[in-house]
TrEMBL record:
Claim: Ribonucleoprotein is one of the keywords in the record: no
Pfam families: LRR_6
Coiled-coil boundaries: none
Protein name: Uncharacterized protein
Family matches, as Gene3D superfamilies: Ribonuclease Inhibitor
Top-level division of the source organism's lineage: Eukaryota
Keywords: Repeat
Amino acid sequence: MGHQGLKDADAAAIASMLNTASVPIAKLTLADNDLGDAAAEVIAEQLKTNKSITYLSLHKNKIGDRGGKALAQALAEGCPSLTTLFVTGNPLSAEARSAITKAYDQRPAESKAPPGSLNALVIDGK
């Protein structure tokens, strides 16, 4: 679903799909769209209870601090299967990046990618 011109208005459909798909979704690429804070908040709320998604790319969207903090909260409160999160290329402040990093680092080891793997938290705020 990358490069589709998705906007915040599409977030409810995306979030609904995460928990109602007939085949559980393990990998979701939403890179290079126009998703902003509102979309990140809706998606983050669904991630808290989703048990199938292991990989989420939100690379190159318009997610700012509000959305970044929602993603951090989701990481801290749930996302039991999520091991890989890409949020590079978004206008995140140092504070939002730090919140996401801290939430990821405090997750149980089984909720993180194995050491040496290519999966992990990828964040730069640009």
